[in-house]
Amino acid sequence: MSEIKQWAEYRSRRGSLNVGRRVEQAAANIMSFGYNMKVKDAENWIDPIELMPHEDDVIESFEEQLTN
After folding, report:
1. Residue 1 CB neighbour total at 10 angstroms
2. What does the pLDDT look like over 10-68, one tens digit per residue?
3. 27, 23, 24, 28: which is closest to 48 by C-alpha?
């Protein structure tokens, strides 16, 4: 998928560089980092995406996109 198509899809889904989304991502990163620091067992760690209710699930990782 070309970069222009990706930006067009992003803008149609979320609008232009949504500030609320950026705040939600930053807050989720901080909360997951704090939680993961307190949890000793790595298998109980949480990903920031789990704390973002308005974010879509990741279907394809960045590395998988590079190989396509």
Report:
1. 9
2. 888 877 678 888 899 899 999 999 999 999 898 999 999 889 988 877 676 667 767 76
3. 28
Longest Cα pair distance anywhere in the chain, in angstroms?
Answer: 43
End-to-end Cα separation, the chain, in angstroms:
9
Count: domains in the chain: 1
Domain that holds residue 18: 3-67
Contacts for 1 with CB less than 8 Å, ≥ 6 apart: 65
d(CA 2, CA 25): 25
Write down the pLDDT at residue 26. 92
Supply the pTM of this predicted model: 0.64
For residues 14 and 21, the answer to whether their CB atoms sit within 8 Å is yes
